[in-house]
Design brief:
Layout (H helix, E strand, L loop, with lengths): L7 H28 L5 H8 L3 H7 L3 H25 L5 H18 L1 H8 L7 H24 L7 H21 L5 H21 L4 H6 L16
Helix pairs in contact: 1-2, 1-4, 4-5, 4-6, 4-7, 5-9, 7-8
């Protein structure tokens, strides 16, 4: 009786293609850091030391290359740092600040790559959407765990997480193209906004009913310590 076996050559070719794509993505990241976020396929190919034909042999078009580059950056650079910060054994305020610092600092340390993958005009944003979804779900788990410890309601945890993640991502993206603030100022203001939101939710016990029943009047500002740094 004949037993069909996987074609070893096809399997090796598939693995070769995967390995070669990864090499070209690494080369693309290096090219963007050298040439800037606006680098086109010709510039990327030249920087890597291959022809554009070679790039198109492994990537169907620029969108495909951008998608692969985005996945590599998110999975190998951005998410590990954010996950590490959000997993610290620290109080709630320090968790908020450390996670924001990790995100903003990572973006600021590799701005050309960030601008390339976030603002390239690619029609395929599935990697970014998946990153935002994963990030929001992780934040939701942390909020739920900490809220439970403080006997707060957690029905809105996932919604709050999407609001926080979406707002932080959009604000950071704006900042990469408008450096009117220092990194520390951005972290301070994002922390102020995020912590104030979390503190407000805790004050209402996580309950929308209690929140709706509370008076909502802006407090009187405390005396400023001095001008912003």
């Amino acid at each position: 009786m004949r037993t069909d076996r996987p074609d070893g050559r096809k399997r090796r070719w598939r693995q070769h293609k995967i390995d070669r794509r990864e090499e070209l993505v690494d080369g693309t990241l290096a090219a963007i850091r050298n040439r800037g976020a606006g680098a086109g396929m010709d510039e990327i190919a030249t920087e890597i030391g291959v022809s554009k034909t070679v790039l198109y042999r492994y990537f169907s078009d620029k969108n495909d290359l951008v998608h692969a580059t985005m996945q590599r950056y998110i999975e190998n650079t951005l998410m590990p740092r954010v996950y590490g910060a959000i997993s610290l054994d620290a109080d709630e305020y320090q968790l908020v600040r450390s996670a924001l610092s990790a995100y903003v600092s990572t973006v600021d340390e590799d701005p050309e790559v960030y601008r390339f993958i976030m603002g390239n005009g690619s029609g395929d944003q599935s990697s970014l959407a998946e990153f935002e979804k994963l990030f929001a779900e992780v934040v939701s788990v942390v909020i739920t765990d900490r809220a439970t410890e403080h006997n707060l309601e957690t029905e809105g945890a996932l919604l709050w997480s999407y609001v926080l993640v979406g707002g932080i991502q959009l604000a950071t993206h704006w900042w990469t193209t408008n450096k009117s603030m220092s990194r520390e100022q951005v972290i301070d203001y994002l922390t102020m906004m995020t912590w104030s939101a979390i503190e407000g939710m805790a004050r209402a016990g996580g309950s929308r009913t209690i929140f709706n029943e509370q008076p909502h009047v802006l407090p009187t500002a405390t005396a400023a310590a001095g001008p912003d740094a």
